[in-house]
């Protein structure tokens, strides 16, 4: 008798899986990449590469997950009939745990800035200054609060935790984004930013550096390679048509990234109009943490009382985006400990969260040395190689007949579909070459 959870509805799965994919990589990373890679040319290549590269790998994870109904270690073990798959699964768990260790820190920053907007609004100036300062105590406290929120959701299980909260958080995220976009577009300077974002410079489209960045962004924004999509796939009903479900998740993820760019790039030009510096000395748009924690707060400060409400809404949006991803990351090691080591779910969630929070604290105490190193190690090196391994498992090791049988559970005519004509050879030959090329260039 299985005790595994199953998503209770198609919408629940789409919102949970999209929530996993929609994280700071979309709301922070995507506009930053657009800003530093020539605007609309980057957006165009990202849209193409998201379907050319990210969707086929997403489908590999979902198919392996649903067919095996297992955590990432056991799933890859079953597909490979041996220890090699289990080792790759353990590598995935180690990678996702390290990603969550630095992600929890950034999520904590977002929460701190959300609370700071409230503190400013009610006139608690001393508290506001402390929240804006980057002290070790503030960082540890808010990283801890962020991890507690993640624990609270994941300990509820698949239906009562992950699905229940994804169905609430994701629509809230969309509404906040649309309201902020509508407000920003009423400000002077926004249309200039919109042109930069929407009109591509076609001379830049085939710039190798832009292509590598767009490929990386497409890959990371869907949280591929580390088993989050595999584990969510393992909770999907066998009646569902997986290629369609996967396409829905990819579309929502891309939609949020594009919407984030529509919000943030025009906001930068509004900031420029209001006298805020948005260009670095080399003439490029400011990106990354400078954009989120310097440029945008400076913009909100020029808006008077309305700016505090906008700041609150924006950082609440960022906190929700971080949380919808962190719950899927925590679920990867938790599902392994619950199923493979037979530990009670609640105990497993607290135990793993405590270990990851300890890693976050270690990073915070050695911030200059470890923070950038852990991000590079996991997202630049480990994730693409894990994505490559998933392509090898799905394309070369797992039997084609088993894959087709899995697809037919949700679509009796699967072998006549366009997906089945293209995907098996594509994930076998094309995806590994593209990922290897991307990895080589990133070195």
Automatic annotation (TrEMBL):
Membrane topology summary: Multi-pass membrane protein
Entry GO CC: membrane
TM ranges: 39-58, 88-115, 135-159, 171-190, 210-233, 245-271, 291-317, 349-375, 381-398, 418-440
Compartmental location: Membrane
Secretion signal span: none
SUPFAM superfamilies hit by this protein: SNF-like
Alphabetical keyword list: Membrane, Transmembrane, Transmembrane helix, Transport
PANTHER family for the chain: TRANSPORTER
Protein name as annotated: Transporter
